[in-house]
Specification:
The chain is mostly beta strands. 2% of the residues lie in helices and 47% in strands. The strands form six sheets. It has a four-stranded antiparallel sheet, with no helix packed on it. A four-stranded antiparallel sheet has the order 11-10-13-14, with no helix packed on it.
Length: 256
């Protein structure tokens, strides 16, 4: 922008989370200029206003054709987005001194941690638990991995599953012990190695093992499914004895 007295140029750039704005202005008329009442111009970046406190003195001291003044301002922001930048000179003076130069700057490199995952679970049977888990966002950058941890100790650190998508999904934790409490929690990390917090710890207890009759046992009666009382000889005398079974991997095993 230019008038008969000044020409101005606004330069804006971004470095990480910091917005820089540089103002170049120079004498564009054809003769020496001096104004004892010229106010200081202002630069506004992302809502914060800076005053060029030396500009008025520069003009009041007298400037010649080709004289240049450059000022640079910066503002560090805390979130990604597009921010306005403007420079205003000559406010309060006659119109040919006044001018506003506007621009914008987009910040996109601020790393944002993923959202803390959600988690829930239920027991499927005596040997499996079903866990539903996931994060709604990886933050910035928008790619990453969600990790699921599980075990028989509180605050488990053993990874049992992972995925690279957002949203909830289901994992079946198998090969477990019957009637046993397992602990689970989840955590997410994005591709810039920013971690979310851990999810809450949930507990899921597998179901008790079902008793299964020993197969093809001729001594098993129709009425006693799991325990069989029989008569056995002992030194020529009849004695009561109990025949017991336990469930091992879903199969009955005779133990007495």
């Amino acid at each position: 922008m230019a008038n008969q007295y000044f020409s101005c140029e606004l330069e804006v750039w971004v470095d990480g989370a910091t917005i820089y704005a540089r103002m170049h202005y120079w004498r564009s008329g054809t003769y020496h200029y001096q104004d004892t009442s010229f106010p200081n111009p202002t630069m506004t970046i992302a809502g914060q206003t800076f005053e060029d406190s030396g500009f008025g003195n520069w003009v009041r001291g007298g400037i010649d054709v080709g004289d240049v003044r450059t000022t640079t301002y910066s503002k560090t922001v805390s979130s990604n987005g597009t921010y306005g930048v403007s420079f205003t000179a000559g406010s309060g003076l006659r119109s040919d001194f006044q001018g506003t130069w506007s621009g914008s700057a987009t910040v996109s490199s601020i790393v944002v941690a993923p959202n803390t995952p959600s988690i829930s679970g239920s027991n499927t049977d005596s040997y499996k638990n079903k866990i539903t888990w996931g994060t709604s966002s990886f933050g910035n950058p928008a790619s990453g991995t969600v990790y699921l941890y599980g075990g028989t100790s509180n605050n488990p650190t053993t990874q049992i599953a992972s995925k690279t998508s957002t949203g909830n999904s289901t994992f079946t934790h198998s090969g477990l012990r019957p009637n046993t409490t397992y602990y689970y929690r989840a955590r997410a990390k994005n591709s810039s190695n920013a971690w979310s917090g851990y999810s809450s710890v949930i507990t899921v207890k597998t179901k008790p093992a079902a008793l299964v009759p020993y197969p093809n046992d001729p001594e098993q009666s129709n009425t006693a499914k799991y325990v069989k009382k029989i008569e056995v000889p002992l030194n020529g005398l009849a004695r009561n004895a109990t025949k017991l079974y336990r469930s091992v991997g879903g199969v009955a095993q005779r133990i007495y």
